[in-house]
């Protein structure tokens, strides 16, 4: 008799544990669901870049300046008496125009271009006190006519050249405008962005080699289910010949 008692007790305990196990499974599933929902709802609130950057006014506009010398195609190159002086004047106007297009802001500008060989010129545009250098190969000036006098009028289409190496300007204004363009372009995509902003200490003017990264970052809020957890996108800045490029990581 005494030997049967432990066996009965063991069977009863096993049955009790089985019921507990069956009851715990739905509870575990419910807890997992609660945790998942909590993560989905709370993750956007923990945006690590949510407080970074200074907002960009939606009505921000470009205010480009003008070159320091007249357009040679319309007014000639003042005081030019040699082919080198004419070519230098054409290149100065072109390089200043390029820098102003990159900058999108009106600041003091000047330039100098000098030949380093029969076909190569070294140009330096000084923008807001900072030198912006370029190396230019002049390919054809065979049809150029040079006249004496205070101005030389010529057809600049007869002067063909290639910029083989250059530095570019990156301004805070141009970067901010590029961010506004990025937000506008995103409205046609599956994942849109809003609330554009850039570092408060973004340098007003910096000079970098064409295609290389500039100092600072910009940010924008990612929207849409494909952008979950909807944390702020971080944008790197790259100098370009037609203006800075903003690219999210």
What structural keywords apply?
five-stranded antiparallel β-sheet; elongated; 4 helices; single chain
Structural summary, described in words:
This protein is an alpha+beta fold. It is built from 4 helices and 10 strands. The protein has helices at residues 4-42, 72-75, 83-103, 172-186; strands at 54-55, 109-115, 120-127, 130-140, 160-171, 192-198, 205-209, 213-223, 232-238, 245-248. The chain has a 5-stranded antiparallel β-sheet, with helices on one face. Strands 2-3-4-5-7 form a 5-stranded antiparallel β-sheet. The longest helix has 39 residues, at 4-42. It is elongated and about 95 Å long. The termini are far apart. Mean pLDDT is 84; it is low at 34-43.
Quick structural summary:
The chain has 249 residues and is of the alpha+beta class. It contains four helices and ten strands.
Tally of DSSP helical segments: 4
Main sheet record = 5 strands, antiparallel
Radius of gyration: 33 Å
Count the E strands.
10
The overall average pLDDT, rounded, is 84
Question: What is the topology?
Answer:
Layout: H1 4-42, E1 54-55, H2 72-75, H3 83-103, E2 109-115, E3 120-127, E4 130-140, E5 160-171, H4 172-186, E6 192-198, E7 205-209, E8 213-223, E9 232-238, E10 245-248
Antiparallel strand pairs: 1-6, 2-3, 3-4, 4-5, 5-7, 6-8, 8-9, 9-10
């Amino acid at each position: 008799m005494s030997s049967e008692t432990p066996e009965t007790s063991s069977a009863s305990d096993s049955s009790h544990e089985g019921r507990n196990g069956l009851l715990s499974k739905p509870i575990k599933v419910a807890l997992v669901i609660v945790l998942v929902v909590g993560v989905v709802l709370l993750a956007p609130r923990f945006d690590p870049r949510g407080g970074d950057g200074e907002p960009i006014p939606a009505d921000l506009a470009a205010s480009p300046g003008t070159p320091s010398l007249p357009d040679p195609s319309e007014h000639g190159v003042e005081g030019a008496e040699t082919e080198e002086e004419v070519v230098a004047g054409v290149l100065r106007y072109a390089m200043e125009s390029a820098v102003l297009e990159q900058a999108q802001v009106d600041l003091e500008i000047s330039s100098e271009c000098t030949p380093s060989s029969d076909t190569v010129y070294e140009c330096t545009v000084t923008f807001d006190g900072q030198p912006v250098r370029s190396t230019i190969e002049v390919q054809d000036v065979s049809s150029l006519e040079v006249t004496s006098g205070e101005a030389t009028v010529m057809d600049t289409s007869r002067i063909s050249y290639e910029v083989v190496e250059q530095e570019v300007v990156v301004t805070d204004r141009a970067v901010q405008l590029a961010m506004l363009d990025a937000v506008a372009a995103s409205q046609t995509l599956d994942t849109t962005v809003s609330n554009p902003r850039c570092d408060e200490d973004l340098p007003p003017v910096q000079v970098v080699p064409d295609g290389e990264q500039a100092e600072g970052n910009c940010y924008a809020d990612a929207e849409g289910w494909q952008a979950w957890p909807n944390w702020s996108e971080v944008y790197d800045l790259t100098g370009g010949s037609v203006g800075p490029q903003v690219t999210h990581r």
